Amino acid sequence: MGVHLAYNDVHPFAKVNVTDKASVQKLLETVLDPLEPFFSPDKARVKCPGGTAVRFDDVAAQIEGFARPLWGLAFLLAGDGKYRGTDWWIDGYRAGTDPKSPEYWGYPRDNDQRMVEMCPLGYALAVAPEIWDKLTTEERGNVEAWLGNSINEKTMPNTNWLWFRVFANLGLKKNGGKFSKERLESDIKHLDTFYRGDGWSNDGPEGIHQMDYYSSSFAIQFLQLIYAKLNGDDDPERAAEFKKRTQIGALDLVHYYDEDGRAIPYGRSLSYRFAVVSFWGAMAYADVELPAPLTWGMVKGIVLRHLRWWQTQTSLWTASGTLSLGYSYPNTFMTENYNSPGSPYWACLAFICLAVPESHPFWTSKEEPLGNTFPKVKALKHPGHITSYHGGHCMLLSSGQACSYPMRATHAKYGGFAYSSAYGYSVPTGLFSLEQYALASQLGLSDDGGEYWKTRRLCEYAAIEYRDEKPVLVSVWKPFPDVTIKTYLVPSTEDHPNWHIRAHKIEAGREVMTADGSFAIRNVDSQTGRSLELYDAARHEGTSPKIIGNYDVKTPAGWADGRAGAFAASAGAVGIKALEGWEGRQANLVNADPNSNLVEARTVIPTLQHTIKQGETVAYISGIYAKPTGPGEEFLDGWDKPPMVPGWLDSELQ
């Protein structure tokens, strides 16, 4: 039962009325059904359409296609659900672990991608006894040899990967198979060294600062809770500790989701899409007692609203009905070198709620909004974030995080100043001109006249500090050895809910051009489908100044005084103004390359530009405007009322 989407067809995923457990089961079926035509003859591999290469071999990529949807199926079976294709995966287990089979998965090498996929394979064995029960003695021996012996003998990255070996052994243990008790215990003990406090674990050892959705929903917190559920009887002290960490962390993590169901896109692996809410279903699965003021109605609301929001993102599927590489639409610019066409099915983590009994308050509670229950602004010490709920979206300011290895667009995924649930971050499409760099919520500097740009990636210093008893993010960074920048990020306030302030003190040892970008916004006129024109007050849509394209950037009509600023109104409004007390910066609209933004395929970025002479020290104070909700005429109702520059900031920038 494959799916083929013709012109204007809507994927079955978008048609499910998501209200209860049965409807979420149906939603999962619409994710699994399109995979049927892409199974290999013996069912051990799934070759998802896409054809893109990845850093590991094609067989491992097809194992991803087989194993990752198994998360969803395993949750369904653990919750007493049924799926017509269950035997596809059982047959695949047989063939994939049989050295005599033409579809044998192959013995893993050190640091092999196959190890990652052993996590869902191990979990499925642990919770779905029908898999093990249908295997012969010889087939069970094959599974033991491939799933246990092979991974226990190999070197693994010192990251969340170690959890995958834990679950390979745990799956065998739950079925009475041969596993390594010593390896299981040593891995858990080592993973504990990643814990940083207040519920937060780092994705790696001391010296690495990387806390994104891997620290919560994609791996660490999520797998801690499953471990507590499956191995709590044999390891009660650690299970209790994992639950305690979850209770503390939940009061931070709740700030990453808004009332419209959107999560803040931040960090890597966002092709995993709705997996960002798996943490909340895992709390219910592991029978965690919610910390006040959280309720099960709120938790249910976070999960179901998020799934409904993804139902509105109708371009995320391939023509064959499978999940694409990308976020709201197919987009390989934002992917990592480990994202194969089967990788996005890690999204099936979101369906852990299906393993939760229907009698649990997660299902019996009425959905509740988060409302005004939580602080509107909160400093999150360990990830180095300040979150806010002001202005119709949830947003975080960020400083100090960085990926520990070279990654495509790492500066955009971790080094940006602000990330919003309404306006996804943007990634570069190339290395030439501002249009390709797409510097949304970033400060770029160029020492060659604007061809190549450098942005914040690593910080020499980054911390949450306090001014007037309110949190401020301060960082020091060097895009060039002789250019030092001290950046202040000041969150929004009740009086100016749609503004936050970004200030830079720049000491330039060489001449540099600068470009300070606001959020990126949709560059599509709702009536014509073409690029936005000059702002039309009658239709509440357009830009100021004019978008002048990529080849005539010196046209006077495309520029405004920095204090007047630049804005764009379409799906809400975003903009940027110079708030410093001197003239010099100019405002324009950068017509970003298509497919640079995660959420919108065509975007424009209001930007402030300037050139600093060699030996100069300058201070920039930028007011960044963002209002994604309300009737059209209200999108810009705060644009002419920017916040006052705090006295302390003015003083420190002197």
Structure description:
This protein is α+β, with helices and mostly antiparallel strands. Strands 8-9-10-11-20-17-16-14 form an eight-stranded antiparallel β-sheet, covered by helices on one side. The chain folds into two domains: 353 residues, Alpha/alpha barrel (Glycosyltransferase), CATH 1.50.10.20; 277 residues, Beta-galactosidase, Chain A, domain 5, CATH 2.70.98. It contains 17 helices and 20 strands. A hairpin with a 1-residue loop joins strand 16 and strand 17. Pfam families: DUF2264, DUF2264_C. This is DUF2264 domain-containing protein. It comes from Emericellopsis atlantica.
First and last CA, distance: 67 Å
- Strand tally, please? 20
- Mean pLDDT across every amino acid position: 95
CATH architecture of the largest domain: Alpha/alpha barrel
What does the main sheet amount to? 8 strands, antiparallel
Q: In total, how many domains does the architecture comprise?
A: 2
Would you state the CATH class of the largest domain?
A: Mainly Alpha
CATH-assigned fold name of the largest domain: Glycosyltransferase
Beta content: 15-25%
Taking Cα atoms only, what radius of gyration do you get, to the nearest Å?
A: 25 Å
Low-confidence blocks of residues: none
Number of helices: 17
> How is the largest sheet built, in terms of strand order?
8-9-10-11-20-17-16-14
Characterize the overall form.
Answer: globular
Return the structural class.
Answer: alpha+beta
As a percent range, the share of helical residues equals: 25-40%
